[in-house]
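Friendly challenge for the regulars: who can give me the C-alpha cells for this chain first? No prize, just bragging rights.
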Amino acid sequence: MCLSFMIYFDNSATTFYKPPSVIGAVNSSLKYLSANPGRSGHSLSLKTATLVHKARINVANFLGLECGNVVFTLNCTHALNSAIFGIVKKGGHIITTCLEHNSVLRPLYELKRGGIIDLTILSPVSGTDFVTAKQVELAKRQETCLVIINHISNVTGAVQPISEIGSICKKYAIPLLVDGAQSVGYVDIDMGAMGIDMLTIAPHKGLHCPQGIGVLAVREGLSLKPRIYGGTGTDSLSLYQPLELPESLECGTLPTPAIASLNAGIKWTLKHTHSNREKLFALSDFTTSELKKISGIKIYTATNSVGGIVSFNIKGLHSMDIADILNNDYNICVRGGLHCAPLMHKFLGTMESGIVRASFGFETTFGDVNSLIKAVRNITHNI
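First reply, four minutes later:
Bragging rights claimed.
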C-alpha cells in the first residue's frame, strides 16, 4: 500500500499533494458552511450558495469562459457522460481519437452498439504523437455532431493541437468537447481563444483538490439534455427538469466542501504555475534521459509532452510486475497496466504488456527520481 513515506509517482491518477489552503477551505466549509446551497432562504444556506457562485466564477475565469456555464459533477467521468449524452443526436456522427480514456470510449461505444451514432476513431499521424486538425477536417461528415479530443494523454503525455482542431470545428459549426483531465492546471487553457465548446476537469489532479467533484464548462448557446432528474432548488412547482444550465445538469445536494476547495486550488495553482511546470519538465526530461541509458528499456513518453509523465517498459517483464516490484521492494508507487485507454495501447502495441507510468508532482524531488532510476537499473540487472 502506498503510504506518505513512500515515493509517490502516481500523480496522473490523483495528485498526492494537497496544499494547506485547499485543506483549510474544505475544513472551513465542513465546520462553518454545512448547509445546503439554493435549498433554503436562511443565512447559512445563502452564504453557502455565495461560495458556490464564487467557485463558478473562478473556474470560468481560469478557463477563459467569458460567456457560458460551469456545471459541477461527481467527477470528470460524470462530466464527460453529461456532455456526450446531453448533446448526441440519433443518426449523428462523432469523431474522436485512439488516445481517449474509457470515460469517453465506453459511452461512445455504447451509443454505437445501440445504433444511435456512427463513430470515427483517428490515430496520430506517422512520426508524431498527435492527431492533426487536417485529419479531423477530412473525417467530418454532414451529420457530424461532435468532436471529442483528449487534450493530454494519460498514457504518454502527448499534447493534442486543440487550437487548430478548434478552428476546424468552428469553421464547420461542429461542437468540440475536450477532456482536460490531464491538462487543466498544467497548461494554459482559454476556451474562447482555443475554440473549445465544452471542457471537462478532474480537479483532484492538476488543481490539487480532493476527490469527489468534476467540472463541465459549457460555452453559451449549447443546449444539453439532462440524463439525471431530480431536485435543483429552482422551479420546484414544476414536475419537469429545468432546461437551463447549470440547474438542468445538477441534481441533488452539491458537494460544497469539494467546491470550496476549487477556490483555493485555483488560487494556489495560479501562484505556482510557472515554477511547477518548469520543475515537472526538468524532472521528466532528466528521468527519460537516464532511463534511455539502461539496456532493455523502451520509452513511450511523447516527444511533445509538457512534463510530468514518464512512460516505459522493461523488456521481458509485464508492466504490472514492474509496478509490484517497485512498490514491494523499493517503496515506489507507479501505475502499471492499460491505464483505462485500450485503443492507445493497441496503437502502441502494448496490449499484452501494458505500460509503466511514473507521473511526478509538486513534491517530487530529483532524489526521488534518482531512486526510481536506480531501482529500474537493479531490476533490469536481475532479469
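Residues 256-292 form the longest helix (37 residues). The first strand starts at residue 7 and ends at 8. Your move, everyone else.
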